[in-house]
Amino acid sequence: MGGATGSKRVPRAVREQQMLDAGVRAFARSGYQNASMDDIAELAGVSKPLVYLYLNSKDELFTACIRREAAALVTAIRAAVERDAPADRQLWSGLSGFFAHTAEHPDGWTLLHVQARTQGRSFAREVVAMRAEIVEFVTQLIGAAARERARGGARARTLAGTEVSGLALALVGAAESLADWTADGRAGGPSAKEAAATLMNFAWAGLGNLLQGQGWSPERVG
Amino acid sequence: MGGATGSKRVPRAVREQQMLDAGVRAFARSGYQNASMDDIAELAGVSKPLVYLYLNSKDELFTACIRREAAALVTAIRAAVERDAPADRQLWSGLSGFFAHTAEHPDGWTLLHVQARTQGRSFAREVVAMRAEIVEFVTQLIGAAARERARGGARARTLAGTEVSGLALALVGAAESLADWTADGRAGGPSAKEAAATLMNFAWAGLGNLLQGQGWSPERVG
Amino acid sequence: MGGATGSKRVPRAVREQQMLDAGVRAFARSGYQNASMDDIAELAGVSKPLVYLYLNSKDELFTACIRREAAALVTAIRAAVERDAPADRQLWSGLSGFFAHTAEHPDGWTLLHVQARTQGRSFAREVVAMRAEIVEFVTQLIGAAARERARGGARARTLAGTEVSGLALALVGAAESLADWTADGRAGGPSAKEAAATLMNFAWAGLGNLLQGQGWSPERVG
Amino acid sequence: MGGATGSKRVPRAVREQQMLDAGVRAFARSGYQNASMDDIAELAGVSKPLVYLYLNSKDELFTACIRREAAALVTAIRAAVERDAPADRQLWSGLSGFFAHTAEHPDGWTLLHVQARTQGRSFAREVVAMRAEIVEFVTQLIGAAARERARGGARARTLAGTEVSGLALALVGAAESLADWTADGRAGGPSAKEAAATLMNFAWAGLGNLLQGQGWSPERVG
DNA sequence: AATGAATGAGTTTTCATTCAT
DNA sequence: CATGAATGAAAACTCATTCAT
Description:
With 222 residues, chain A is mainly alpha-helical. Chain A has helices spanning 12-30, 37-44, 48-55, 58-80, 87-104, 106-115, 122-151, 161-182, 192-211. The first copy, chain A, folds into 2 domains: 1-56, Orthogonal Bundle (Arc Repressor Mutant, subunit A), CATH 1.10.10.60; 66-213, Tetracycline Repressor, domain 2, CATH 1.10.357.10. Chains C and D meet through α5, α8 and α9 of C and α1, α5, α6, α8 and α9 of D.
């Protein structure tokens, strides 16, 4: 009862996925500490010793869950990006993929975004690495945009490293915040494409202005 | 050993603050579950029973910590906002206050942003309420900006409610993301004012464009 | 709030009685372990240290409660017995007094009958002593009844010590059982005099038969 | 050390009985509060977590102990009653069974008679239910006795309900009082059959007189 | 491939009791 | 006469983890 399958003699690879499914779900909903190995074993429809046989410890199980979900998310984003399009179009398509994936895998997203950050460093590293990968991707796109703009004849200011980092971070943070909204399950949230468009609206113009050296500053009001 | 003060016979109100200090610190650094009441009592420089006498349970202690830090953050933002300035200036000053406070109280910020959201709905609610308050404030500022723009003679498109919500949410998310950076303690992060300026740069132009009906859309590339 | 009086500067003797009142009530209703010194102090309307100042420890407080209630019960029975009446009348009047007192002091009765027996011997001794006193009194009355009967010309068998003990114990047990009923507070229970009469009915005839050697035996059916 | 068996890998059903054995013993001798789960686990020869795994909580363990002992006592009495014998013989045989069982299971008896009644309503209820069952049985026997007497041609007064209840209660109380004696372990107490006979002697004649309308009354002395 | 039986180590929580004023 | 502040010691309960089959 409550178990995923109940069938006996399942090959290892399949069982492991069942366990990871159970882990992702349990960890996302209850948090690392509150999800007990008993819960997870029951959710996976197997006995506890089997979980240990395959995944060794709660720690490793959690790490495996994070890794799987992080890889899935990155893969989804990669697949969504329209490689040869202009930078803004690339960013938009990537964001759409991101929002679509998180909306379809809310437990996975919660695991990555909420739960994984709380634990003693060893877990966080996995997520930090993934986030860094994404931030790097965004950073590159900003760079590409600058180059495009230059190629188009517009004079483009060169942004400092810190500035770019800040922008990328802000963009990713904004995306995460919107993802929590779309993944929330509550009705009324926007679709993936709407969220992506909102974010582009929000971000792209500012970016353009910045590149033109027309940024906002406290002295220039209005 | 390791106690905060060592002074004996302290009035209740003072002791309670010491306990909350210890709680915020311990919870922020170790998480709710990993911070034991023993740790917290020792950090506060008192015995465990006294913690229970004054704060009743780990749950209530955690809640009290969250509430205190949430109130402090909101108060700091309120105090920083330049009430009668134009909307963008208000937003900027509020953001500056936000970044300054989180940078000065990194444990409090971690407690609110990371830990409180991880430990089940009941705790998260406290933070969600606070966040809603802030989002509401931002939403109002966006509305004010629209009105100012209209008063200034510029034609301003009316934004839909969902749009505004999305923008405010994105902005708050971006701010939170940057706050994690500034509060990180790692050197190299920007100052509060820099972070606020970066965010304004990032966000304000997009907002302006939007109000003029020049938002980005997937069809209009470049 | 909840305190008995709240008035300050009360002479010691009075305060002690207030504490004993609180103790009897709390112990009777919650049991020795479940009644906390905090509860009792609050019920008595004083601070905990004062309870310790006057009664030294929970143990001693409990003992003092038992002693007071035991003495009150024995005194009530003594006062009720019609000294110069025939044995059966004496027994009846004593029982009436017993039932009347327990009905009027249900907490005291519960304390003696239920709570005091459960604790590690040191408490039980007090109650055992009281009970022994009562059993002894009943035993004497049975003896007196035998002598009266002999004086009246009837042949009276001499009862063995064990027999008398058993009878007295049975009678006391029956009385206690009925006392739980009358002291129960539930309506429908009998009055003290009715209970005493029921018990006399139950016991006296058998006693008489026994003395005449006409006791019931398994072999004589019907 | 001190463990009951020392054998490892015992099936659950057996272990549970061992735990109940330990619980009955510990609770009877130390009381609910003073018997710690550590003690009980050690007595049962297992670790504490196993006790919790099988019996969930101290509360449930206590309840399970009470229920088992109550059922055992009732079963023993039922088995001892000579179904088709006359009422007095039935009563006697039931009492014999009662005394025999309590003497053989003094801890069980103490648990039921002393400990269970001390620990708040919820536990007491279990025992009250059992006692009610027994009182009911006795009440029926008294009724049967009246009918037998009538059938035998003797004029038999009809007893009021309250009267019968009172008598049954008194008899049960007397039996309990004697059971404390026989189960006491102190030498010198009577055997089960002696105790039963003493009680029959004590009670049966009075009952007979009552049925003939010759009850004792305060006005009729001697 | 799979599990029922079992536990070491640690956590939250409670309470009788005492100082210092 | 009276109390607010403080604690040592112990108890209930949980959980990741392992063994024997």
